[in-house]
Structures are given as structure tokens and as C-alpha cells.
Write a structure and sequence with these properties.
This protein is of the alpha/beta class. It has helices at residues 19-30, 42-52, 64-81, 106-133, 155-174, 194-198, 203-209, 218-229, and strands spanning 8-14, 34-39, 55-58, 83-90, 137-142, 180-187, 239-242, 247-249, 252-253. The protein binds 2-hydroxyethylsulfonic acid. Keywords: Oxidoreductase.
């Protein structure tokens, strides 16, 4: 098979403006990747790209036009750097609200399905031909323990994460025989903007999620993704669940209050 393996290995990270995405972009840059940082917040990704010597692309993963432009930029980068797209980190996503099904906020549900599920679909579909052509591709999708657990008030988020995980794991079979590894990272509590977004900027409510325990940090997750990315091409870490020691499940945690 003809491959486009170039001199420079390129990694694309979505949701790179903060948290796990930002930390992962830094780890991958440290490993020598040219990192394309994609997110909606221009100022943040421009500063990050400057810091790590990467490329910032303002991208809303729910917008197919924006994702097509991201893919186009990646094509140009491959040419200008004589590089190949070897890594995609599907990290964009999140939760909104925590309400029972009976009171479901349809806008919240739509946002969660659009961002976590269709966003992953748009970006993966757009970059897959390049990842395959690189001869050594890797797709990491950051889901959540909500991809296999459920909890009261969480159906919008858990159903979206279940679907995102199903989409990702389906690729493992569809791409069998092609040179692309697939890893699902399923974190539990990570102290990022996650809860602040979920509770619409309510700092007190967001902080309460992590009170009395030691949550994971974005860097903890990024370090594991860096390990995944640095394995040889024949080693596929299919699924990795990472929780704080203090968290047994989405609904059971040990808190010292
Ligand atoms: C979020 C996981 O444990 O904070 O994706 O609900 S948890």
C-alpha cells in the first residue's frame, strides 16, 4: 500500500483550548509532533499554538463547513511540512445540565449530541483518509465513564457518551487491516472546566463536584494519551478507564469533608 508517511508527524487535537485537550497538545508537542490545536476560542488556541510551535485552527466541530476547513488546513500542512497526519485526538465534548428525563432540556440534549457524537463523527470522517494514508495512524477518543455508566439526571450526557463510544469502537472493526490504531480514553472526575460548563458557570456548584476528594488533573490524562501515542504501531490500547483513587463509580466517591 502506498503511504504518505512524511518527515514530520502531525497530530490534531480538538477541544484544545483548555483542560485535557490543551494538556494533550503540550504532551504531543513535547514528543515531537507538530500539533494542530482546534477549538472555538481563538485567543486561547493562538496562544497555545505559539507556545508549542503548532498551528491554531478555529473550529466548531459541530459545523461541517468548519471541519472541512480544518481538514483543508491539515492538507496544506502536510504539503508544507512534508508531513503526515498520524494522530487525531477527539477531545471536544462536554455536558450541559443535570436534570431528570421528565424535565429534559432539549437544547441541552441537542448540544451534547451535536458536540460529543456528531462532532466526533465529522472530524473523524474528514481526517480518516489522511490517517490511513500516513501508514501509522492513531485515533484517540476521549469519552468518559459515562460511556458505560448511567446516573440520575445524567441521561443526556450518558446517552451521548455511550453513542460516542459506540461510534469510536465500531471503527476498530471497520478499520481492521488498515494502519490505524484506536484508543478510547474514559476518564472519571477530572478537574477542568467540565463542571463549570455543565452548570452554566455556577462556580459553587462546579466546585462541589470535586470537594473533599482529589480529582484527576488534565495533565494526568494527557500523560496517558502521550503513552498511547508513543507505543509502536502494532500495539493498540483499545480502552483505558482512568478514575481518581477516590472515585469508584459515577455515583460513589470517598469525600473527606
Ligand atoms: C465526566 C465523568 O465522573 O465527572 O465525564 O461524571 S464524571
Amino acid at each position: 500500500m502506498k503511504t504518505l508517511q512524511g518527515d514530520r508527524r502531525i497530530a490534531v487535537v480538538t477541544g484544545a483550548s483548555s483542560g485535557i485537550g490543551e494538556a494533550t497538545a503540550k504532551v504531543l508537542a513535547g514528543q515531537g509532533f507538530h500539533v494542530v490545536v482546534a477549538a472555538r476560542r481563538e485567543e486561547r488556541i493562538a496562544a497555545l499554538a505559539e507556545e508549542i510551535g503548532g498551528t491554531a485552527v478555529v473550529t466548531d466541530v459541530t459545523d461541517p463547513g468548519a471541519v472541512a476547513a480544518l481538514a483543508q488546513t491539515c492538507e496544506h500542512l502536510c504539503d508544507s511540512l512534508s508531513g503526515s497526519i498520524n494522530v487525531l485526538i477527539n477531545n471536544a465534548g462536554g455536558a450541559k445540565g443535570l436534570t431528570p428525563v421528565e424535565q429534559a432540556d432539549l437544547e441541552h440534549w441537542r448540544w451534547m449530541w451535536e458536540t460529543n457524537v456528531l462532532g466526533t463523527l465529522h472530524v473523524t470522517r474528514a481526517l480518516l483518509p489522511r490517517l490511513v494514508a500516513s501508514g501509522d495512524g492513531l485515533v484517540v477518543t476521549v469519552t468518559s465513564i459515562a460511556a458505560f455508566e448511567i446516573y440520575d439526571g445524567g441521561a443526556g450526557y450518558t446517552s451521548a457518551k455511550h453513542a460516542q463510544s459506540a461510534l469510536h469502537r465500531t471503527l476498530r472493526g471497520e478499520l481492521l487491516g488498515k494502519p490505524v490504531r484506536l484508543t478510547e480514553i474514559a476518564p472519571g472526575m477530572v478537574d477542568t472546566e467540565f463542571s463549570l460548563v455543565r452548570f452554566d458557570g455556577d462556580r459553587e456548584r462546579a466546585d462541589a463536584v470535586y470537594s473533599g476528594l482529589t480529582p484527576l488533573t488534565a495533565a494526568d490524562i494527557a500523560e496517558v494519551i502521550g503513552f498511547v501515542a508513543s507505543r509502536p504501531p502494532h500495539v493498540d490500547l483499545d480502552q483505558i478507564v482512568i478514575r481518581p483513587r477516590d472515585q469508584a463509580s459515577a455515583t460513589r466517591a470517598s469525600r473527606q469533608i
